[in-house]
Amino acid sequence: MALAPPCLNAQPVAAHKTQNVIIVMIDGMRWQEVFRGADPKLLKTVGPDSLPNGKERAEAAEKAYGRATSAEARAALMPFLWGEVAAHGQLFGNRDLGSDSHVTNGFNFSYPGYSETLVGWGDPRVNSNDNVPNPNVTVFEWLNQKPEFHGRVAAFGAWETFDFVFNRQRSGLVTNSSYDVFTGMPESPELALLNRLKKETVHIWPDEIFDPPMFYTTLEYVKYAKPRVLFVGLGETDEWAHAGSYAEYLAAANRSDAYIAALWKLMQSMPEYKDKTTLVALPDHGRGEGPQWTDHGQKIPESMQTWMAWIGPDTAGLGERKNARPVTESEVAATLAALLGEDYHSAVPKSAAPIADVLVK
After folding, report:
1. Residue 115's closest CA among 340, 281, 335, 330?
2. 305 close to 286: Cβ distance less than 8 angstroms
3. For residues 57 and 51, is the Cβ–Cβ distance under 8 A?
4. Each residue's pLDDT tens digit, 214-246
5. Which residue from 1, 58, 284, 355 has the highest number of Cβ atoms inside 10 Å of its Cβ?
6. Which residue intervals of 14-85 are DSSP H helices?
7. CB of 105 closer than 8 Å to CB of 118
8. Does the pTM exceed 0.90?
9. Is 343 in contact with 337 (CB distance < 8 Å)?
């Protein structure tokens, strides 16, 4: 069997079509479901007693996502990834095919994972999920300091700690997280309703809102401000996994895929974005296997395992990668900058170099 071209580090390419970059992170979404679809054994689990109608939820999930083969199951769960990205972009992280994607920070949980991805290396000082301002400058903040990107960089997330990951106070970035109403644009009727929902929705998780109000706020901002660099942080996958509800974890993963599709469709309908936007989707960490699927962290080595999906005008349509060089979350920051023609890796030597294969059409 012929090996796929090696995935090598590379400096930014001079000729690039990408003028905008979007990163969507799906908190704690396992590579197993992305590449294998719903796990037949876990589909039988009914979830926690605190969540009513567990049996009915499990039966509905099995009907929606259970299939005879893994190829059918993954397409049912994440149709955009397997319909659009697999056809026109690249997916890394299927260990069944010799493709590895992972975090390098050693902690295998959220804040260290987000920081590694956005800064370009795993800083041992970033070792908790506490609301502590990130001591490091993210690639978002770095780009926002450049005249051509200043004021065109934004981050939206369901988790309140994103304000600290991006160090909003220091960076001055447009950010909106958790239950906070958004005031960064004139209040349209749509935004007014979304802000009202944020105020009135039930706080199941005190630091994290359900994904829909945050996501649709993001869409309103895209239509209004047309940012060139955008972060979207979806959180329900991780919350439902920790709760032990495989059915709701799958439902959240399916919604995440639909949200990526909706964002991509919107952008391809806008001249500012059409055929000049690159999107990457990935998690901040993985999870354990079998009974440990609900958890992650240093004591669960498998939770360092991640995946990533790239699509855009400068990325070759190699589809699902096989026998490829491992990629790491630390390489994402420099890759995003390189797609925009910027050399983050040289400016920030601690960061990992960009991923060559997603920079060359």
Report:
1. 330
2. yes
3. yes
4. 999 999 999 999 999 999 999 999 999 999 999
5. 284
6. 31-36, 40-43, 54-65, 70-77, 79-80
7. no
8. yes
9. yes
